[in-house]
């Protein structure tokens, strides 16, 4: 599992979801081990993309995407580098994850944060997949891929809206009480 995930993360796009689901379904007692191995292997394999991006991948990326998309990616990594990488790491195919990993390296995201963001994102993704597989069987992979393929933009929009709401709530909870009190006085 570790080696397959490392190859998937660094070089070759392999169908990791069916592989993880198959292992989990065959040996239910070790599902957490399979999830950890897949997340660790993916983080290790992605180090290759980081090195490519850090050593000059900007030209490569600029040739592959529009200038507007490049600017948006770069801005996302400037504002919230960890979340800008962890969130795409959680999404199943057809999300172009290697593009996000390359953009993180080009934006000079710290190496440690890069690896941790990928590990955490993949851990969430594969843990959800394992739980769904244990509950509903391995056919959940096929159903999930169909939903994402047919309704990719809707699913992505809902996930982004949920993340946005969570960030707003988190930001409001962190504001000092004196600022919140002065805003209420100003409104009245």
Brief description of this entry?
It contains 11 helices and no strands. The protein is mainly alpha-helical and 188 residues long. It starts with a helix and ends with a helix.
Listing every helix as H and every strand as E from the N terminus to the C terminus, the arrangement reads HHHHHHHHHHH
Number of helices: 11
* Average pLDDT for all residues: 82
Poorly predicted parts: none
Q: What's the helical proportion of residues?
A: over 70%
Number of domains: 2
How many β-strand stretches? 0
Structural class: mainly alpha
Strand percentage, roughly?
A: under 5%
Computed CA radius of gyration, to the nearest angstrom: 19 Å
End-to-end C-alpha gap: 60 Å
Largest β-sheet summary: none
- What is the 3D shape? globular
What does this structure look like?
By secondary structure, the protein is mainly alpha-helical. It folds into 2 domains: 2-138, no CATH class; 151-188. The chain has helices at residues 2-10, 16-26, 31-54, 57-64, 67-79, 81-90, 97-106, 111-136, 139-150, 152-174, 177-187. α2 (16-26) runs antiparallel to α3 (31-54), α5 packs across α6 (81-90) and α5 packs across α7. The chain is globular and about 45 Å long.
Features of the shown structure:
2 domains; globular; mainly alpha; 188 residues; 11 helices
Fold topology:
Elements: H1 2-10, H2 16-26, H3 31-54, H4 57-64, H5 67-79, H6 81-90, H7 97-106, H8 111-136, H9 139-150, H10 152-174, H11 177-187
Helix pairs in contact: 1-3, 2-3, 2-8, 3-7, 3-8, 5-6, 5-7, 6-7, 6-8
